[in-house]
Amino acid sequence: MKDFLIIGCGRFGRSVADALVKMDKYVAIMDIDVKLVQELSDKVSYSVQGNSTNPDNLASLGIENFDAIVIGIGNNVEASIMTIVNLKDLGAKRIVVKALNNIHAKILESVGADRVIFPERDMGIRIAHNLIATNLLDYIELSPDYSIVEVIALPEWEEKSLAELNFRLTYNANVVAIKSGDEIKLSLSSDDIIKKNDVLVVISHKMYLNKL
Q1: pTM of the predicted model, to two decimals?
Q2: Does the N terminus or the C terminus of the chain have fewer Cβ atoms within 10 A?
């Protein structure tokens, strides 16, 4: 079972905490606002009111024991930087942090953030792709060039094998999983048949996404 710490329980931090709790993960939270902590205290595994810019407050949590730490205090640039520095000194394994802009992101990465997230920008990109491709259910950016997407099988794909469809040649994409109802198939073969309403998980270069 993986353990997570969420620092900053605004809208972003709370949504991450809620999602992890639903996945039955151990979730600890810290926020400077005692009211926010009290609101979430009965939903998470552990909650504490504290200022993450104070290393003593973090040290008491056993930072080295968490698999990942999410910092959701992006609106306070100085606090997010100081928190990362403190976490690195305390042996944090993985730090994910919310950023306000590209300059803020570069600073966060330079002081030790393992991953920087732009919630509003990333959501905007997802919505835009969903509007352009109506069969696209979800979109995640893997790198500046590649993305992983979930697409509903098009009518012309139905009852055809992966070999017949030849996604790599036709769409310059790789199918990594097929979701049929509640079942997910990860070990695919060229003989697998696409059925109506199947959802394909595909990795593709961004310039070819509009072909799917």
Answers
A1: 0.66
A2: N
